[in-house]
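Objective 1b: paired records.
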Amino acid sequence: MSVGLSAHQSAKRCGVKIQRPRLLIIEDDLEFRDSLVNLLRDEFFISVADEGCEGYSRAISSRPDIVTLDTRMPGWDAVRTLTAFRENPRLQDIPILIVSDDSSRESVLPTIQAGADGYLLKENCSKANLIDRLNALLDVHVRS
């Protein structure tokens, strides 16, 4: 594998055809959600939900490989959504990256305790950074 590339990126670079991972984006901010879709659509098959309960339902009907999740949304917030994923045997092992504009301890700690696999501030959501974080979580998941 090339240095600095995920297994997925290395295989792609070598011309090996592999299926793109399925990403579920759970985000209530339409503008930010659309920007995530635009950043990631070449690397992932994407589905979207605008709140946690809808995202959970989508994951049950079509299991994603990875999820990005906002912290504060109408309906189910991140902690409630994480709890539902982690309590469901079919979904409990899906890596979930929190993508939020809130870096306060009161926001970060409960999501990590509820089972989030990572936390990324929205201000740090460059295409390269986001793809690197998602691929790193996918690689850890595949190896475990």
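Objective 1b, second protein:
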Amino acid sequence: MREFVGGQCRVQTKERELSQGEIKAFRIYGDNPRRIRIYFAWLCSERRAFDKLSKPWKTKLKWLPTQCSLGPPFLDLSFRTYYYQPDEERIKMWGGGGSEVYRFYKPDDHLRLVPDGGNYIPYHELYAHKLKLALWVALVSSK
């Protein structure tokens, strides 16, 4: 699991709340249930926020940074079983009686979040936006 340091971990609770952050370090311990403590370089949560670019203002789901006043963010999670996906090189763990899911992504995974101003957005959205912008610039400059 050491190759996941620098990658990201996504936690989905039984209430369908999502958190995701960059893995700084982790420690697995315990027997029944097994536990994993994950230390994050940064951590954010998916929350409903106003989209200032739309008129009239609408809310949409955004990844917003989680504020931690007591030092670096960490999560201490229990898990019962896990599965390694060899085709995607990811790990999926189940905890909380099977109602919580933890996903681990390597640093180069396309499902990771990347910083965009004060928020985080999915990697594929950032580069799709940059591609659209480059195409628009190419179109305008060719006229």
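Residues 56 and 93 are 41 Å apart (CA to CA). The beta strands are 8-12, 18-29, 34-51, 58-65, 74-79, 81-85, 90-95, 100-105, 113-116, 119-122.
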